[in-house]
Amino acid sequence: MRKISLVAAGAILATMSVMADTIPARAAVPSATAQADSPAGQTRAATTAARSFLATFDPGSRTKVQFPFVTQKSGTLARFRRSAPDQPVQPVTDAQAAAHAARGPGMGPPGGFIGERYGTSVWSNFPVSDVPRPGLQLGQMTTGQYTAALHLLQTLLSAKGYQKVMDIMGGDQALADSGTPFASGRAVYTMAVFGEPGDTKPWMVQFGGHHLGLNIVIDGTHGIMTPTLTGAQPAMYLADGRTVRVLAGENDRAFALLDSLDAQQRRQAILPYKVEDLVQGPGHDGETLIPEGVKGSDLTAAQKDLLMDVIGEWAGIINDAYAAPRLKEIRADLDSTWFAWSGPTTHTPGHNGASYYRIQGPRLLIEFSPQGVGDDPTMHVHTVYRDPTDGYGSRYTMP
Q: Residues near 46 by Cβ (< 8 Å), separated by ≥ 6?
């Protein structure tokens, strides 16, 4: 992560400190147990929750959180960079990024801070101080707005998915508490609504920040959560006297699958080269990868179940009513789904590993990629979850 100036860092950290004192780790949100278990009922619940959130804003301030829902064929690369340490980030074109890279090192990576744009939405693994997200940060909301925002998240996500999001945000809060020169912590995660929440026409909720990008499109009875980015830094931290290990299921279930493979399957699954980052992270929507690894048709029934357990860590983030048909279509494609591995084949029990893996099927792409930034890849990870046939709900929203 490139650093900004100490002056800017001090201002950001001071702001985060004030927000941390006024924003609790958990809001007192209404129970999500009353959600209907059918897709149609779930859409009604999501619509009600989104409208309730928007109703906490007056017409003048609602423009800070609600934007048009603009459909397009796929997401596009979005670049941002600073002209100086104390200057805000600005969007840059590919030509400007190339010229910047040609001049040598400057503020931010040579190609700029990278995000993915879809219509007026933007998401990234970078902090919000490097890749600005449209919408309003949690720390800028009133108590009523904050409570309604988290209730909307609870309505859209499964109980396990909501807890995963809270754990990611908690890790980022631990990072903020340790001192960072960029925007971090719960207070800077940002929510936006795109379109008009309803039961028929498509609309989207985007929520995210550092190591989190949820893009949830609701279109009638369909709820689509691809693409989504999850990550962690640190992947282990203490909260209320207990150890939290973020993305533990994604790690442990993948190792369980790897350990189940016989010698021939392992030779197929383990790549002969090292993968050190996401191949189809932010800005790489619509690209095609040649599948690698061991093919699902070469797995036993028990191994296919283990593979579905791994996939469920992403596909099961969204609430169960929307997740069920998604998991059904993924399972139907298992014979044509590939599992590839790069890196160590063991990990310390109770800790995440330092290994990359990829799951790729006709309607699925998952990547799990530990990062070397911070010297301990087990403590810093990026993941991405895509559907090449239905990014941003395009299977239903595009003509």
A: 152, 155, 156, 197, 218, 223
Quick: pLDDT tens for 181-229.
888 999 999 999 999 999 999 999 999 999 999 999 999 999 999 999 9
pTM of the predicted structure, to 2 decimals? 0.89
**Are 285 and 76 in contact, with CB atoms under 8 Å apart?**
yes
Give strand pairing partners of 193: 66, 205
| Rg of the chain (C-alpha set) | 20
Q: Characterise 168 by phi-psi region: left (phi > 0), alpha (psi -120 to 50), beta (else).
A: alpha
Q: Tokens at residue 205, please?
A: 């909720």
Q: Rounded CA gap, 315 and 229, in Å?
A: 12
pLDDT tens per residue across span 302-324: 999 999 999 999 999 999 999 99
Tokens representing residue 307 in the block: 């593979």
In order of 17, 25, 170, 237, the CA distances from 240 in angstroms are: 19, 11, 11, 10
Q: Pull the structure tokens for residue 231.
A: 């990550």
Name which of 127, 131, 114, 135 is nearest 194 in CA terms: 135
Helices (H), the chain: 6-22, 39-54, 59-62, 94-102, 143-156, 159-178, 248-260, 263-269, 301-315, 320-332, 394-397
